[in-house]
Amino acid sequence: MIYMGSKSRISKHIIPIMLQEANEKGITTWVEPFVGGGNMIDKVPNTFTRIGIDTNPHAIEALIAVRDLVDKLPTEVSEEYYKEIKGTNPSPITSWIRFVCSFGAKIDNGFARNKAGQNYANAGVNNAKKQSPNLQGVRLINGSYDEYSDFKNCLIYCDPPYEGTTSYKTGSFNHNKFWEWCRKMSKNNLVFVSEYKAPEDFTCVWEGEIKTNFASQRKGATHKATEKLFTIK
Predict the structure, then answer these.
(1) 22 within some domain
(2) Average pLDDT score, the chain
(3) CATH of the domain at 211
(4) Residue 160, pLDDT score
């Protein structure tokens, strides 16, 4: 699913690194506490038990729509209808619309349009049809990462809000608390984190430069940013 901050562009680089570690340690459960648009977990082999968690209920509902209701997703959405459903309670199809038909795929960020007259709903349906088969069997949960501290012998991949980047609708994010949680979870699990930087006790196992407009607060700005994958040993 199109989603702000998606890691789909780097998934081919970092997923093999994590899967190799998991296979070496006999780990067969993949947990994503910041599953977002599901653009990483949908590329994890279904031989793994896959659990996707997100604090944004609309993200979870939208993924449920892609997983279970792909044939019911609308290929056309009017601006009037988009405005009508803005601010409504989470629900699979309306939550999906509020992502894919918004500027930058950021929920309720204004009706997306461009000079070419692109049909964002239709593009979203095409993407959903490709993604849906790869989400079958994925357990989707609405909740905060820190509500789940009992996982053991799992690979936990985290893609949290990056420090210093565009804020999420859910508000500010406590980065220090997050890194402490990662340290705790690493005692019984493999923990990997996507970020631009990490505390000194975390090791960078991959990095690559990508173009992004996510790392800046300036609207429409495009930058090159060095994505990194960290783990703690």
Answers:
(1) yes
(2) 91
(3) 3.40.50.150
(4) 96
